[in-house]
Each structure stands twice: as structure tokens, then as C-alpha cells.
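User: C-alpha cells for both sequences below?

Assistant:
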Amino acid sequence: MLAAMLLWGSWCFLANAEAVWPVRLGIALAQALASGAMTWGLARVVALAMAGIGQRPGMRWLVPLGVVAVTGSGLWLLHRTLGTPALARTIAPPIVVAWSYCQWLAWQASRHRSLPAGASDVERPAS
């Protein structure tokens, strides 16, 4: 979570180089806090959703899509409200990485859920 805060807060600061320093600092801090909260929330929401509905067809794709749509919209709204000069350049990379992270979490959840109780990856039959 701290890594996401540092990475995306720094990215926001650099992506908005044309803004004055205090504005850059403010939106970078907002991005860092939002990224921390989103990273924390993404893992929990994907895990809960996959535990409840993960075995249904298409859920491995729909759960991350829904989660990223909500968090990406929140990020867009935050930066739109703050008047971020380079809005698309600021939020596109975090949204793409969030999508990849959610896909990985969903894959992990579906993979571990499909194993029989007590089985490890080593005991799983090759397909």
C-alpha cells in the first residue's frame, strides 16, 4: 500500500509538471492518499466478490472490471474536482495497473478456490 502511495503520488507530481509547485504537491498528495485507499480496498473487494460469486462464468473478468470502473471513476472525480491539469495522463497509468492487479487477484482467488480442500499446488494434477 505504501509503495502504491509513493509510486502514484510521485507520478502525479511529475505528470503535472506544467502546474505551479503548490498545486502539483496538493494533487500528488491527494493521488497518494487515494492510491493507498484504493489498493487496500481493491484486494478486499476482489477477494470477497470472488469468494461469493467467483465460480460463475465470466466473473474472473467482470469482478475486476466492476471494481476498476468504480475506483477509476472515483479517481477521475477526485482529479476533476481538484482541477488536475493533465487529467488523462495522471489517471491512465494507475487505472491500467489497478486492472492488472485486480486480474491477478481474481486469478489467484479462482485458482485457490478450485483446489480441493487441503490440496496444494504441488498435489494438483497436471492438465
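Moving on to the next sequence.
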Amino acid sequence: MSAVIEQRAQPADLEESVYRLVKKAVQFGKNVQILFHTDDYLCSTDRYLVILGESGKFLIHNIEFDEVLTASQDDYRARGLKSVALTTQVEENGRDIREFYWQAAFQASGGRLLDGCREDDVIQLRQWPNFTRLYTSPNIYRISSLLSARPTTLDVAAKLLSVSKEELYQFYSAALYSGYAEVLNRAVVSEIELKPHPYVRIVKMLLGRFGGHPA
């Protein structure tokens, strides 16, 4: 029986999801509020995701994480965050942006290696995530213990722990994309690069309105 966690919603491709916009906001240090539609309103002011690109924090209000990750581009709109009160709230109560990256990558993986992850990578867990607030799988603590104690490959980890490669693929994808893991046997870019996307101009235009001019 597979140990890969079953998500409540069909994961969206990272290149088609809010993840792309979040990564760009953090990359360029922009504070962004993403408003999500409801049945009654085109964009609700009470269902939103806030990203503080400058400090690397986020807050989700009145909407499930699954819904954020599976939202299509027609389900939300982004705007620059101008509210000082909301900015202060996120600074004080927001979560580490790495947790958002973990959720998105874990969901998108579904038991496969995401782009930038290789089966022969020698992996070490640099820091334990706070699993009480994240998607997990049945053997996640055993995997974390091994990879934090000794660098190893996924193949060796699967044999030592007697867990499925699918569960390890999901763990590694989430850990690398969120920055909790590092690769020791090859050079990797500091940021996982997303492929060119037909809507990239829209993303650039949105962020440009927030006071920056992304390349």
C-alpha cells in the first residue's frame, strides 16, 4: 500500500498555480495580497493570501490551503498590499514562507520527483520543518531523522527505512523546494527555476504595479 499522502483536492501544476506569483513576490521583495473568488463575489476581500516578500512571511485568511494551491488563474487576482495594519498582522502572526513552498511542492509532487530533483542526489536535511502545520506522510519523521543524521541518496534511504520511493520523492521535492534540504553531490541553483510560461508577462505586469520591474 502506498504511503504517499492523499490530498483532498487535485494538485495544480506549480507553473499554473499561485506558487509562481508567490515566488516572484518573494524574489523581488514585494508585499502582495491575493484575493480569491466566492460564489457571491468576483473577488472577496475576506478570503485572501498575503505574501510579505520583504520578510518572507505569509498569512492565509478564511480559505483552505488546498483551495489556494489548486486555484486557477481565473479564481483570484493580486494587488499590492497597502494596509499598514494587515502588514503588521502578518509580520507578527504570519508563517515562514518556506512552509508555503513545502505545501505547494508536496501537493504538486504526488509521489514523483519535481523538476530540479534527481534520484541520485546526495541529500541532507538542514533543518526540520514544523510538521504540525504541514502536509505529511506516514514515515516522515523516520525520513527526517535519517536525512538530518547522514547525507544519503533516495535509493539508499528507501532500503534503510523500507519505505516507498514515492514517499521519498514527495518528501525530497517538498524539502528541496522549500529550502529545508540541500544537495551535496552537485551544484544546484539557489532558486528552483520555473519554465517560461505564456502568462509570465501578466505576472511581471502585476509585480511591476507593486513598485518593481522584474526581469
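User: Anything stand out in the second?

Assistant: Residues 111-183 form one domain.
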